[in-house]
Design goal:
This protein is α/β, with parallel strands linked by helices. Helices cover 43% and strands 26% of the residues. Helix 1 crosses helix 3, helix 2 packs antiparallel against helix 3 and helix 3 packs across helix 12.
């Protein structure tokens, strides 16, 4: 029997040969890229990949078939990543990103900002953290915020996108498809819900609790412990507090921020009512124009994929091939199309990463991706 040193020596020799062949293959891949550039052909060629996989799996036999598939699929990803680096210069999307990076200035300290709700809302708190001197225009719906930015009424808008306790704000993701905008900043806010009532109201007398549906969901355990309280969905936590203040009903309460108590003359009837102590909401700041600040370190894109096995995995493997960390993947059904979904990807990267720019160039021109939208490159606090 061979000893371990001899066996490892044989493996090293094979690895050296594999490395030599990989280098040779990548040189040929560059020739392929130049040919595709001349012909305007896409980087991905599924039929060619299937042909290679069929040939190599037959060569290794059933025992090593799955291993060969994994090795060659990974190699395809590395080869396509190299091709993207060579081809990204002719992409209008890449040029627009590069121009925005060159023109990038620090995030403004003052601006007119469209904000859902009213004074005291968590969205207003996010605006105050993002801008030192904001002029806030309040709107009663998320769609009105999108419209205010899209029509140029406000250069910026703030919207909740995700909560650590109850997940994504589906309505905002659905509205993303219908409006033109770019994400230019993101901000996380610590959410500390309290139960507010009119002056002199008592907790035991409360029969109705009103707030935004997400806030009600974040306080499910508290509401379950008080079955006599009926949960009533509202458009916004701060608007609910403001309405309660003007209504004066002693049997009603709202779930909102502590700031609303002082703003609207309400009493804190219960505090620490969130289900999770670690409760954060993530807000995005949107703009009609593409703005990329020097500290940008995150990307967001949106696309529709064909409804067939492996289509999503194929996209994810492209990110893995260039060693990019996907931080969020959100799927939303496409109205009127059974089992068809639109996907939003968030991932970490500097905006001048050539591998990422190459991937974006490919995705934006891929004929199999029905709708591709670059949402923005930005910094998140």
């Amino acid at each position: 029997m061979k000893d371990i040193t001899e066996i490892r020596g044989e493996i090293d020799a094979i690895d050296d040969e594999l490395a030599r062949l990989l280098k040779k293959r990548m040189a040929i891949v560059e020739d392929v890229a130049r040919s595709k550039m001349e012909r305007g052909a896409p980087i991905t060629d599924p039929a060619r990949e299937r042909e290679i996989l069929t040939r190599v799996t037959e060569a290794v036999g059933p025992e090593y078939e799955m291993g060969a598939r994994r090795v060659f699929t990974t190699m395809f990803g590395v080869a396509k990543a190299r091709q993207r680096l060579m081809l990204n210069g002719d992409s209008p999307l890449v040029r627009s990103i590069q121009d925005a990076v060159k023109a990038g200035a620090p995030f403004p300290t003052r601006a007119v900002v469209a904000c859902p709700g009213t004074e005291g809302s968590y969205a207003q708190q996010a605006v105050s953290l993002l801008f030192q001197i904001p002029t806030i225009l309040y709107f009663n719906s998320f769609e009105k915020v999108f419209e205010a930015v899209e029509k140029g009424l406000c250069p910026y808008g703030i919207l909740p996108i995700e909560n650590s306790a109850v997940g994504s704000v589906a309505q905002v993701y659905d509205l993303m498809v219908r409006h033109r905008f770019h994400i230019v900043r993101a901000q996380r806010i610590k959410v500390d819900h309290v139960l507010l009532g009119c002056r002199g109201a008592r907790l035991e007398d409360i029969r109705e609790v009103k707030s935004h549906p997400h806030a009600l969901a974040q306080c499910g355990a508290f509401l379950k412990a008080h079955p006599g309280m009926k949960a009533v969905p509202g458009v916004n936590t701060a608007i609910a507090a403001k309405d309660l203040s003007s209504g004066g009903r002693a049997d009603c309460a709202v779930i909102a921020s502590r700031a609303c108590a002082e703003l609207y003359g309400l009493d804190v009837l219960a505090e620490g009512i969130s289900d999770a102590a670690y409760n954060y909401t993530r807000f995005i700041c949107i703009s009609r124009s593409l703005e990329i600040t020097p500290d940008a370190d995150k990307f967001s894109i949106m696309m529709s994929l064909p409804h067939r096995p492996g289509s999503l995995n194929g996209i994810i493997s492209k990110f893995a091939a260039i060693d990019v960390n996907l931080t969020k993947l959100e799927s939303r059904p496409i109205p009127g199309m059974d089992f068809e979904f639109r996907f939003t990807f968030d991932f970490d990267s500097a905006p001048n990463n050539p591998a990422v720019l190459g991937l974006l160039a490919e995705l934006s021109k891929d004929p199999e991706i029905e709708h591709f939208t670059f949402l923005g490159a930005y910094s998140e606090r």
